[in-house]
Please model this.
Amino acid sequence: MAERTNEPTIEAREEGWRLATRLVRGGTRRSELGEVSEAIFLTAGFRYDEAEEAAARFKGESDGYTYSRLGNPTLAMLERRLALLEGAEACRVVATGMAAVTAAILCQVKAGDRVVAARALFGSCRYVIDELLPRFGVTTVLVDGPDLEGWKAALAPGARCVFLESPANPTLELVDIKAVCEIAHQAGARVIVDNVFATPLAQRPLELGADIVVYSATKYIDGQGRCLGGAILGDAKYVNDVLLPFLRHTGPALSPFNAWVLLKGLETFKLRVDAHCRAAAKVADWLAGDKRVLKVLYPHRADHPQAALAQRQMRLGGGVVSFDVPGGSQGAFRVMNALRVIDISNNLGDTKSLVTHPTTTTHQRLPAAERQALGIGDGLLRLSVGLEDVEDLIEDLDRALRA
Model:
């Protein structure tokens, strides 16, 4: 049989695939055994046929793997699939979401640089901005996310990078990503967006002008509360020339087994996220109609403070609903303790519905005055809506609110 020389490469085929196909098949590289499911290369190191081959690989003169801290076939499949999903040139996966946040910032800053960040951030992200970076001589400035004039003022002296969440944890406050990116780029700053609440299915930061996107893959990408992971995506120059040397020598490596679990999670990613968002919208509407609830926050509801922006930059409303109940922390605890279907947990993005009290968990390190300024009151609950029957969730909430 004549050899077919006009067959497209696997990369060319992947670029032409639609989203659902990319999520199931993107990045897959089969071994000579022809396995259907992606293989787990659970190995720390790799062998060489000759000493000269080892030398060539370490010099970068020959393709191939040397050590799983630096690269691994299972991780490479996950990185390619995530890049296809996000529409990014390159991706690197790491051990956790916070490893992704920290590496994305630290790899590009040095003493004397400025970092400008949105004030409304996950508690550990605030630690990186407020406490970790200043230890190394990096100046940090916090801005109220929706305040575009505040961004202009903070970025006027210039900055190395900008960091923001949108929607923010747990208030679901939004940042106008496109507008902030325009301001930041004029100041010479790279923009990093933590897109974990929206996921790439609901929001595309790179299309809005962002330079770098980070994820806790522990959340919706895994989607079943099984393992930790993180991802950093951006242009090839940043990922390969700036980020990769930092990762190579600091070592926040993802386990090949966890990478395989995350690959399997991506196969059902769209089905799950669509279902999470549909259910969350129904739960938000029900909570908003209950007089026992003081306030409901959900991006795609018309009563969200930034509803117009949410419709403009988010294709879906997300799977998280935050709401205020009377009685402060005691009232919130009574509601949580009365739940019988929804679990109390600080995780999110799981198939199981999870509720947490940010004041005493994820944001407990922030001073009370700062929490109040951010809208994180003692009665605020963050609900990650899972994939149970939505009527069972509503009945569970109704029973709990009677407490």
